[in-house]
Every structure is written in C-alpha cells, then in structure tokens.
Design brief:
Elements lengths: L4 E3 L11 E5 L2 E5 L5 E2 L1 E7 L6 E7 L16 E9 L2 E8 L4 E7 L10 E2 L9 E4 L5 E10 L5 E12 L4 E10 L10 E8 L2 E8 L7 E7 L7 E2 L6 E2 L9 E11 L5 E9 L11 E10 L2 E4 L9 E3 L14 E2 L12 E2 L7 E4 L2 E5 L28 E5 L4 E9 L8 E8 L3 E10 L2 E13 L10 E12 L4 E9 L2 E7 L6 E8 L15 E7 L8 E12 L2
Antiparallel strand pairs: 1-24, 2-3, 3-5, 4-26, 5-6, 7-8, 8-9, 9-10, 11-12, 12-13, 13-14, 15-16, 16-17, 17-18, 17-19, 20-21, 21-22, 22-23, 25-39, 27-28, 28-39, 29-38, 30-35, 30-39, 31-32, 31-38, 32-33, 33-34, 35-36, 36-37
Organism: Neobacillus driksii
Pfam families: GH43_C2, Glyco_hydro_43
Family: Belongs to the glycosyl hydrolase 43 family.
Length: about 550
C-alpha cells in the first residue's frame, strides 16, 4: 500500500535531536534520551512515515550511567552511522566521562560497551566516513586565543582510528557558525556531495531562536565557507503564536533514487506558548540548488505534512491502549529515571510490583549532593517507571493495589516535567486512614535555564485529599490541553472526580525550556525511611488524541 503523506511529527513526544541513516531499503533513526534509562531509542522504517521502535542502544548498566537528579543530564545529541556492515553510534554522556562510541552489526543489538574517546572535547560529537575509508569526528569546543583564554564555541574536526578508537593527528577548527559570535553552534553533521564537504550545524540555542545553518569546503579540514542563504531552516521569525517552534538540530538522509530528506527537532505548542511535549522529531524534503540544500522548498518552514516519496510501506502495528504487564520484560515504551542500580520492580502473574524505595519523588526532599553524582554508581535509585506523553490530550489510568503503612509511604501516578515540576496522584495514610491526595510540585529556578540543577525553592501544594478504602484502587488522569482532571474508584467505568482542571502550565514553566518533555508513570516511595512495602499495578492504560 502506497503511503500518501508524511505527517509531522514522525516521532511524537520527547524524542529530540534525531539522527538518521539508510542501509539499503531500510532507514534507522535515533534520538537523545537525557537521564532516561534505557538510553538512545532506535527506530526502523522503510517509508519515512511510519516508525517502529526496535530497541534501545544503551540498555545495560555497563553502557549508561545517569542519575535521577535532573532530567537535563545523561545522553545528548547522538549520531547514527553505518559503514562496511557495522553500525556506529557516537554521543555525549554529560553524567559520565563525556564522548563515546558503541557499535553493533545488528541495529536491534546487542551494542558494545562504550569506547570512551580521549581528548574529544565538547558536546554533540558526530561521525563521518570519507570515500578513502578514513573516519572523522566533528564536535564542539571553546576556541582558545593566543593568550590562553577561551572564546566563542566553534566546530572542530579530527581523524579517528576506529580500530583503536583513538583520535589521531591535530584537531582543527573548521567553522564558528553563520552569525558572528552566534549562540551555541553545535550538532555538527558532515556530508559529501559533488566534490564538496558540507557541514550542517545548529545554532541560536535549542529554544525559540534555534536554527539550522550550513557551510562547505573542498578539503575536509579547511575552514568552511558559510552559505549566503543561511539559516537554511528556522521558525524564529514566525513569532510565538506559530504552532511549531524551536526548529533545529537536523540530519540529512539520501534515498536510493537520489532524493534527500531532513529530520529535525521541533516543538508543538499547547494552549499558548507551552511545550509540554518537549522537542519532537519532524521531517521535511530537501532539494539542492546551485550547490546548496533547500529544506521544505516553496515554504521554507516545517509543514504538518508532505507528499510521501515512493517507498515500500512500513508494516503498521496498532498501538495498544492497555499494558497488562504480561511476560517477564517491560515493553519498549517504558523507561526509568536514572540508571536503575537497585532492583526495585518485578513482573509476575501479569502484575508490575514496585518497591517503596527511600528516595522521594520530590527533589527538595532528596538531599542529594549533585557534585557527587557525576560518576557515582551508588547514587540511590528512584522507584519510578514511566513513558512519554505523545498527544496534546490524553487519558492515563492504572489499577493499583497498595496500602500505606506509615505517613512516609506513598505510591500512585505522576505527571513529571523537568523532574521538579509534577502532579502526583498518590495514596498514603493519615491517622490510621488510607487517603488519596493530589500534590502539585513546582520550583522557582535560578541560574542557567537549561541546566537548573534544582537551584531555587521547590514548593509542594496539596490541591485535594480524600479518605479512601484500602486495597485495589483505580487512578485516572484526563488531560485536555492544559486542563488536567483526576479521578479514582473501584470500577473504571464509574470513577469519582477528586480534582477538576488543574492547570498544567503550573508544572510546565518556560524557564525550564523545551529540553525535556512530559513523562507519565507509576511510582512508589517511602520518603527517606526504609520500607519492605510494595505497590502492585495490574494494568496501565494510555490513550491519546490531538487537539
């Protein structure tokens, strides 16, 4: 069956920084995962329109260290490439030893443990294979002047020996971006076409002023000539009322017939300038004119849909609404917040059981020294399992069996944005009675907006509370844009309203920006105390629609 349209976003939800490659008739794409584990989800398609997740590249603790301290850490800006039968993924783990490569012969895995690249500075390292078999890394670094002071960030290139996984020779600065002293030149990707090397980067920062720019050179290590028509893609000039914003961080792919496409990140707005879904993956066609690429020809902006190329259709699997936790392994949609160094969950008898760990869902209560967590594999785990919000409107529900034994014990559902902005729909106990309450957690942040590290004051507000029976309870959250309503009861078809139309903008402050998206999940905590208690979930539903 012929696919008639490419509909954006092609990966809805918190899937930023896409990188794509083609191997024969197959396309593979990966995205950043930040502090989520497993890391770097990988997707497959044959038609560019429909994508199926086939695995996670970093699915072992030996591959990925990150902690549940702040969401904007961990894995940033991976690049996926294929050469001579081997897949390569290079990325930055800002929670560990920085830039590394993993390899596989099958994109589904297993992937190797990290090869850490010594002397590889900056973020967003990318890989390029030249026609002569040599391989190169491009990355970012602060330029050093003759007096030893660090100046503006620039893009560098260096040859890498992939047998010994070592950089060889000199690292040369090749470009500083299209604008003089531009903000955040990053995400470099290198391509070769018609005798030129093309260097495509992102600049302007990953928020509203994000942009894609390009330069070229005849020799790979020369200083690159910027295109007079830069930026080749941005939405910053369209204003804050335009429904797609933050467009940038692109990667090219060439089809077998010579057509080109670009994938990039962007954010959809929900009820004003609010980006609950974070940065998502979009696609647009590319043509070449006078030796330079034109993205989304005719309009110059990312559209909601494009005519699809003539490609074999990808088999589509219907997305299941309910997860009954069958089998001994969680589905690929589920992730942890931080590497799960403690075994805090089990799957048996078609139920998911979460231990009540001492670590609190509230950042204010964690008492964690952030300076000690960078490579600290003893950092306590958070008993949380979640999935990404994919739609502007959604309903999540779960059947939970849990009786709190002390006032410290809590379990339930959580809507989490940037980790210290959340709604917690939780059961606990007060004065010997089981209670159900809705907690709104927010922070007034200071410092650099993209890396808040919990500077500022975290505030928790109890929006509603009621006494409930013990044992099994069904919890349900219905989101209509920014209005969230909370229901509970024993029978899914006749639930009771606890709180109506909580304002999701209160947990989605734009000072945090669009670096991460909203996570929806289940949690259990004893809030600083030791506990042998568990919360058991019989099923979890996710159903979403667009506005």
């Amino acid at each position: 069956m012929k696919i008639k349209q490419l509909n954006n976003p092609i990966l809805p939800g918190f899937y930023p920084d896409p990188s794509i490659c083609r191997v024969g008739d197959d396309f593979y794409m990966i995205t950043s995962s930040f502090s989520l584990f497993p890391g770097v989800p990988i997707f497959h398609s044959t038609d560019l329109a429909n994508w199926e997740q086939i695995g996670n590249i970093l699915d072992r603790k030996s591959q990925l260290h990150t902690t549940a301290d702040h969401m904007t850490a961990g894995i940033m800006a991976p690049t996926l490439r294929h050469h001579n039968g081997t897949f390569y993924m290079i990325t930055t783990n800002v929670s560990d030893k920085w830039n590394f490569i993993v390899t596989a012969t099958d994109p589904k895995g297993p992937w190797s443990d990290p090869y850490w690249i010594e002397g590889c500075p900056g973020i967003d390292a990318s890989l390029f294979f030249d026609d002569d078999g040599k391989a190169y890394i491009t990355g970012t670094r602060g330029e050093v002047s003759h007096d030893g002071t660090h100046g503006s960030q620039v893009i560098w290139i260096g040859e890498i020996d992939l047998v010994n996984m070592q950089l060889v020779g000199e690292k040369k600065t090749i470009w500083g971006g299209a604008l003089t002293n531009c903000a955040s030149p990053e995400a470099p990707h290198l391509y070769k076409k018609d005798g030129y090397y093309y260097l495509m980067i992102a600049e302007g920062g990953t928020e509203h002023f994000h942009a894609v720019t390009i330069a070229r050179a005849k020799n790979i290590s020369d200083y690159y000539e910027g295109y007079a028509g830069n930026p080749i893609l941005t939405h910053r000039h369209l204003g804050k009322q335009y429904p797609i914003c933050n467009v940038g961080h692109a990667d090219f792919v060439e089809l077998k017939n010579g057509e080109w496409y670009a994938v990039m990140l962007a954010s959809r707005l929900i009820d004003g300038y609010h980006k609950n879904l974070g940065r998502e993956t979009f696609i647009a066609p590319v043509v070449w004119e006078d030796g330079w690429p034109v993205i989304s020809p005719g309009t110059g902006k990312v559209e909601w849909s494009y005519p699809a190329p003539e490609l074999p259709a990808t088999a589509q699997k219907p997305r299941a609404v309910r997860d009954d936790f069958e089998g001994g392994k969680l589905g690929m949609a589920w992730v942890y917040f931080g590497t799960p160094y403690e075994d805090f969950h089990t799957l048996s008898d078609s139920k998911l059981s979460l231990k009540l760990l001492p670590r609190s869902m509230s950042p204010e209560l964690r008492k964690i020294d952030l300076s000690a967590t960078k490579t600290d594999k003893s950092a306590p785990s958070l008993s949380f399992i979640g999935r990404r919000q994919l739609h502007a409107n959604f309903r999540i529900s779960a059947n939970m069996s849990f009786d709190a034994l002390s006032v410290n014990e809590t379990a339930g559902l959580v809507v989490m944005q940037a980790s210290n902005h959340q709604f917690r729909f939780e059961r606990s106990v007060e004065k010997g009675q089981q209670i159900l309450r809705l907690i709104q957690c927010t922070s007034e942040l200071t410092g650099y907006p993209h890396q808040p590290h919990f500077k500022g004051v975290t505030t928790e507000t109890e929006l509603a509370k009621t006494v409930v029976d013990g044992g099994i309870i069904i919890l349900s959250i219905i989101a209509e844009g920014q209005d969230y309503s909370f229901y509970y009861g024993k029978v899914d078809e006749s639930l009771t309203l606890l709180y109506e139309r909580a304002d999701a903008r209160n947990i989605n402050p734009e000072i945090v920006g669009g670096m991460v998206g909203t996570m929806l999940g289940m949690f259990a905590s004893s809030n600083g105390q030791e506990s042998t208690n568990n919360a058991e979930f019989d099923w979890f539903d996710y159903n979403g629609t667009e506005q």
